[in-house]
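B., you asked whether I could sanity-check this one before it goes into the benchmark set. Here's the sequence:
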Amino acid sequence: MTIILNAARMGTKEEAHEYLKKAFGFPDYYGGNLDALADCLGELDNVKIRICNTEEAGEYLERLMPVFRDHAEVSTG
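And here's what the prediction gave me:
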């Protein structure tokens, strides 16, 4: 499965939290915590993540990228 994420929707921690919960179907306990996000991503099998609109990304995406790299394939563009 490939999940396409719009970087422009992850400009702040709050925006990213809501967007990722919806995109991945994460439970409320995810809470925007990067360690919890890594745990949730680790539970997903055979997931590829493609991040688009990176030119419109906010600062928070920089904090998210290492988590995505550890748990999924990422291609930006």
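One thing to flag: The first strand starts at residue 2 and ends at 6. Otherwise nothing jumped out at me.
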